Amino acid sequence: MIEVKGVTKSFDGKTILHDVDATFQTGKTNLIIGQSGSGKTVLMKSLVGLLKPEKGQILFDGRDVMAMNGDQVKQLREEIGMLFQGSALFDSETVLGNVMFPLIMFSRMTYSEMLDRAHFCLERVNLKGADNKYPSEISGGMQKRVAIARAIALNPKYLFCDEPNSGLDPKTSILIDELLSDITHEYNITTVINTHDMNSVLGIGENIVFINKGYREWVGDMSQIYNTDNEALNHFVFATDLFQKVREYVVDNERRTPPSGQSR
Ligand SMILES: Nc1ncnc2c1ncn2[C@@H]1O[C@H](COP(=O)(O)OP(=O)(O)OP(=O)(O)O)[C@@H](O)[C@H]1O
Ligand SMILES: [Mg+2]
User: Fold this and answer.
1) Once rounded to an integer, what is the mean pLDDT over residues 255-261?
2) Cα(41) to centroid of ligand 2, in Å?
3) What is the dihedral of CA 252, 181, 237, 40, to 10 degrees?
4) Where are the beta strands (DSSP E) in the chain?
5) Crossing angle, helix 170-187 and helix 140-152, to 10 degrees?
6) Among the four 42, 48, 77, 92, which has the fewest Cβ within 10 Å?
7) Nearest atom in ligand 1 to 44's CA
8) How many CB atoms lie within 10 A of CB 23?
9) Are 170 and 90 in contact (CB under 8 A)?
């Protein structure tokens, strides 16, 4: 579990995150949602230690990141897998080389153990037979899979994904979401995903934190989002006619089907 308590971050006197509280649960797909510019990436970068907030606490299973010394930060980094906005693969490395990279850098495995692990991760993301291809030779969806394989290579306890679906078609986006969700549950990872993709919100939003203009505005899950009376959230989630219709359908269905165990 990751706990964020009263995190405030400013740049040049302009406050971007205002006293943000949030909890990201173990073994769940935790989503940070919000409009472009709301502060999702700044929050995620603060979580992984790439940015230093002026105020607040970030606790990784009780360990306070901001109170850590260099060695402790290094230890924590080894427990973290990251997927940056865009897949950020190394263009001059092959698919296999990309997945081997964190193992070579951070693990104490023998070379053959590293190869086994890299192949295992590539198989886990359904990418077999692409070992020797370069990122430019594979599709965007495949690049994301490589990035996921690389992010899970070190068997992370925490996985951070900044807009994992950006640039993908809707069908491929859903496949990537399902993969992230499966991996999260299978390995009991605390996964945090930044997104403004409504399919993701409604598909894998087990724990959703809504950020609005740098404030933590709402917390809930994908079933609660249909019934929220939070105006800013409604405006954000149901901005399009399509999602408005989905909500009407779900709410109407809930009205006609009482919760189980309840007699009519
Ligand atoms: N290093 C920085 N220096 C100054 N301002 C920054 C820096 N990083 C982010 N900001 C500002 O913080 C605000 C929030 O940016 P952030 O990248 O977190 O938004 P976001 O919610 O991730 O948006 P998107 O959905 O477009 O990725 C923006 O106004 C941005 O200009
Ligand atoms: Mg962002």
Assistant:
1) 65
2) 4
3) 160
4) 2-11, 14-24, 29-33, 55-60, 63-64, 80-83, 158-162, 190-195, 207-212, 215-220
5) 10
6) 92
7) 18
8) 14
9) no
| DSSP count for the chain of H helices, then E strands | 9, 10
Q: Is residue 258 part of a domain?
A: no
CATH of the domain at 161: 3.40.50.300
Q: Which DSSP string corresponds to 180-213?
A: HHHHHHHHT-EEEEEE--HHHHHHH-SEEEEEET
Specify the residue with its C-alpha closest to ligand 1, atom 5: 11
**Residues spanned by the domain of 165:** 1-79+157-223
**Residue closest to 130 by CA, chosen among 176, 175, 94:** 94
Note the pLDDT tens digit of each residue in 184-214.
999 999 999 999 888 888 899 999 999 999 9
Atom 30 in ligand 1: which residue has the minimum CA distance?
37
Q: Ligand 1 mean position to 63 CA, how many Å?
A: 26
Q: What is the pTM of this model?
A: 0.89
Give, in order, the Cα–Cα distances in Å from 19 to each of 10, 30, 59.
11, 19, 15
**Nearest protein CA to atom 7 of ligand 1, as residue:** 11
Domain C-terminal end among 155, 173, 192? 155
Ligand 1 atom closest to the CA of 85, numbered from 1: 27
Atom 16 of ligand 1 has which residue's CA nearest to it?
39
Ligand 1 centre distance from Cα of residue 234 (Å): 22
Q: Which of 7, 42, 46, 85 to mutate to test the pocket of ligand 1 (most atoms within 8 A of CB)?
A: 42
Specify the residue with its C-alpha closest to ligand 1, atom 18.
39
pLDDT tens, residue by residue, 81-119? 999 877 689 999 999 999 999 999 988 899 999 999 999
Looking at residue 240, its pLDDT comes to 66
Q: Which residues line ligand 1 (CB under 6 A)?
A: 11, 16, 34, 36-42, 196
